[in-house]
Amino acid sequence: MELAYMAELPKEEFWERRTRVFAQMQPNSALLLFSEIEKRRNNDCTYPFRQDSYFWYLTGFNEPNAALLLLKTEQAEKAIIFLRPRNPLLETWNGRRLGVERAPQQLNVNEAYSIEEFATVLPKILKNLTALYHVPEIHTWGDKLVTESAVSFSETLDWRPMLNEMRLIKSPNEIRLMQQAGQITALGHIKAMQTTRPNRFEYEIESDILHEFNRHCARFPSYNSIVAGGNNACILHYTENDRPLNDGDLVLIDAGCEFDMYAGDITRTFPVNGKFNQPQREIYELVLKAQKRAIELLVPGNSIKQANDEVIRIKTQGLVDLGILKGDVDTLIEQQAYRQFYMHGLGHWLGLDVHDVGSYGQDKQRILEIGMVITVEPGIYISEDADVPEQYKGIGVRIEDNLLMTEYGNKILTAAAPKEIADIENLMNF
Ligand code: GLY
Ligand code: MN
Ligand code: MN
């Protein structure tokens, strides 16, 4: 499957989001957001830069050391950006900067200032306002600037409830990018199925996946990839990826690309040698059955909790049928006996962040709405040390897809990644 590169979000979308924020802000208030800064990896080397998702959401500006101020007075609504000034010498060494002069036109904002002037300019802009929306302790470099500016307010408000709710419902343009992220992520998993062989190292498969993402214009993964052979699958956030893959084991791969800042998040589990053995097949089919039922239930009008309750029932019944759990299913569910083998949630919001923002409601009982994107990722993890029949020890399976809530139910954004045993075995037929 070849994918054409699709352009980034139109500039108007960032402006339109800010308009919606203005509409929710109190009169005579300002809202302050800071960008990420570059993070030191070692000595003078940095990690690849990734913009703060909130800052990106309202600016579409991908430089470090910047701030956005939204100002709402009786006279006007103004978007003001603070950013690094042009500097030919530093730009020669470290890369281009947009600069103050070009920023208003390029970012569609009313005013721009050097970030170096922040502490002196801020008090002048904010005088006579009554409230400031600011969330401290996200960016300490920004908190320091606010302290230096010595501004004080009768009321400090939290912008997260407002922005989180907005980010939770995806626009048509965001959906387009998330569909692309889902498809490219699926291509990475197909590639992994095609290149996995006994004795290859986990990190070799990781690099095949990343290369596939890159070939399709997704430069970075949306989180650190998990390539977990055999019992490593029972470590939920295993990212060492430094062991050889063993003939006869499964490999669990949880990897997603980031496409124009939006995350894909797929897990597939398949046999290193291309053929499931009987116990692997039994556990896999159980997880798949639970996942398919969850997908039926994860539609607008239902909650994640409703689907997870069903998943817990299916898994508990299945584990009893296989002799892994013993006892009455209802009692085992009450005792949460499944938690030894299923110790995480069914899914999470997905968007600019892989674990995206937004309230889940108590016990994940929030009702799903059109435009939300969630993951569905049941798993069963039976560690080598578990007190279970020998043949199931060291088997860890998770199957994860991404669902868009639509007027017709849901759309699986990641359907291109095979998950039926026959399809996986056909693809891996080497
Ligand atoms: N990849 C992280 C998660 O599935 O939640
Ligand atoms: Mn995942
Ligand atoms: Mn996930």
Question: What strand order characterises the main sheet?
Answer: 6-5-4-1-7-8
Helix content: 25-40%
The average pLDDT score comes to 96
Q: Let me know the largest β-sheet.
A: 6 strands, mixed
Ligands (ions, cofactors included): glycine, manganese (II) ion
- Secondary-structure-based class equals alpha+beta
Global geometry = globular
| Uncertain regions spanning at least 5 consecutive residues | none
Q: What is the radius of gyration computed over CA atoms, rounded to a whole number of angstroms?
A: 24 Å
Question: What is the overall number of helices?
Answer: 13
Distance between the termini: 20 Å
Strand content: 15-25%
Total beta-strand segments: 19
Describe the structure.
By secondary structure, this protein is of the alpha+beta class. It has 13 helices and 19 strands. The chain has helices at residues 11-24, 53-59, 88-94, 103-107, 118-126, 140-149, 160-168, 172-195, 202-215, 278-297, 304-321, 329-334, 421-427; strands at 29-34, 40-42, 45-46, 67-72, 77-83, 111-114, 131-133, 155-157, 220-221, 226-229, 250-255, 257-259, 262-263, 266-271, 373-376, 379-382, 395-398, 401-406, 409-412. The chain has a six-stranded mixed beta sheet with strand order 6-5-4-1-7-8, with helices on both faces. A three-stranded antiparallel beta sheet has the order 9-12-13. It has a three-stranded antiparallel beta sheet with strand order 10-11-14, covered by helices on one side. The protein is globular, with a radius of gyration of 24 Å. The protein starts with 10 loop residues before the first helix and ends with a helix. The model has no long low-confidence stretch (mean pLDDT 96). One manganese (II) ion binds next to loops.
